[in-house]
Automatic annotation (TrEMBL):
This is Carboxypeptidase regulatory-like domain-containing protein. The keyword Signal applies. Residues 1-24 form the signal peptide. The keyword Lipoprotein does not apply. InterPro entries: CarboxyPept-like_regulatory, EF_Hand_1_Ca_BS. Residues 246-277 are annotated as: Disordered. Residues 253-277 have a biased composition (Low complexity). Keywords: Signal.
């Protein structure tokens, strides 16, 4: 059965359970009334509820829920209809995360008469990315043994209270392929994470911020963290087969320069290739060319499971490069970098270049993928 459909069925069943177990909101003629709860049935105070006049512009009626999660809006003497919506702001690790809530039943009610519109804070399956937290799933940088994402299962076990105040329950979920591999609609909080591939344990670690490489293990406990590309905090999980040999990390980080080419990055033959020429007004020895599969919202991140790189060993202002062992059918973005000051980080004065000075992507095999490197500001 379709995974999203299955999740929708379970979410609907849970909502039905809340409707039958919680105290029903009483209808009051001439008022829109309702109760707002989380998935455990606990009331949510201070939730903004908006009754949108469908026949008039900028004539909304707005209120907030009380300590018991109740609200009440007068529509007496208003011969129109209102579409009712609710949204809340979760406060998590210093972040303010706006979330729309789901109406339980009909959300459009008549004026004068009024009606009952209850809401629940639950996963929204009407959009691919949902309305709650995202868990990203990537292979670790430089991992040489490919993991079949289609056979990966994550177990996310809550540790302590979640952002909505609930204790939550363990989630056993498969990542889905969007712009990368994700588990969607996970309530923000701290989780113990484990993973398997086709039933066999994988090693996991929480992805660092570009300067931190955490230890691999059979599990880790981590929080959702605000990433560069994500509008909201995300829980970033890296996976690999146990005892997999890795190549040096290709990400620029303090204390060392980018790694040389290798089997997992691009140094070995096999698979389609991308090749071309680097040009600059200085010696390009030590320049690194990255082939990145765009991921995340807007494609501003890289799916590190497919990232390849090669380090230029020759000298000159015009040098050739070749990226081997690329994956067929994937769109790659090419970036070239020369660390001028040797600090192992991208900083002012370093040289950077994109293919054709653009942000476009190419699909291997490609020849004449020439890149001109220019100083950063």
């Amino acid at each position: 059965m379709n995974r999203i459909l299955t999740r929708s069925i379970f979410a609907s069943a849970l909502t039905l359970g809340l409707c039958t177990s919680a105290h029903a909101t009483q209808a009051v003629r001439g008022f829109i009334t309702g109760t707002v709860v989380n998935q455990a049935g606990a009331p949510l105070p201070n939730v903004e509820v908006v009754a949108d006049n469908t026949l008039g512009y900028n004539s909304n009626l707005i209120t907030r829920t009380d300590a018991q999660g109740h609200y009440k809006i007068s529509v007496n003497g208003m011969p129109t209809t209102f579409k009712v919506s609710a949204k809340t702001t979760l406060k998590y690790k210093g972040a303010q995360i706006p979330i729309s809530l789901s109406a339980k039943g009909q959300a459009v009610v008549p004026g004068n008469v009024g009606g009952v519109v209850d809401f629940v804070l639950k996963p929204d399956t009407s959009t691919p990315y949902g309305n709650l937290g995202l868990v990203t799933v990537q292979m670790g940088v430089g991992v040489s043994s490919l993991v079949d994402y289609n056979k990966v299962v994550l177990t996310l076990t809550p540790v302590g209270k979640l952002a909505d105040g609930s204790s939550g329950k363990p989630l056993v979920v498969r990542p889905v392929h969007l712009a990368g591999w994700f588990v969607v609609n996970v309530m923000y909080g701290t989780y113990k994470v484990t993973a398997t591939e086709n039933g066999q344990p994988l090693e996991v670690r929480q992805k660092g911020d570009g300067t931190i490489l955490r230890e691999w293990g059979s599990s880790f406990t981590g929080d959702f963290i605000k990433d560069m590309w994500a509008p909201n905090p995300a829980l970033n999980v890296e996976i690999r087969h146990p005892e997999t040999a890795t190549v040096p990390d290709a990400r620029p980080s303090a204390g060392g320069s980018a790694a040389s080419s290798s089997t997992a990055s691009s140094g070995s033959s096999g698979g389609p290739t991308i090749s071309g020429t680097l040009r600059a007004d200085t010696d390009l020895k030590g320049a690194v060319v990255f082939a990145c599969v765009p991921a995340g919202h807007g494609g501003e991140d890289c799916d590190e499971g497919f990232t390849r790189f090669v380090t230029v060993k020759g000298s000159g202002q015009q040098v050739s490069y070749i990226l081997n062992n690329l994956s067929p059918g994937l769109e790659y973005r090419l970036v070239a970098w020369l660390d001028q000051d040797g600090d192992g980080d991208v900083s002012d004065g370093d040289l950077l270049g994109l293919l054709n000075d653009s942000d476009g992507t190419v699909m291997a095999p490609v020849k004449n993928a020439d890149i001109t490197l220019k100083p950063t500001n």
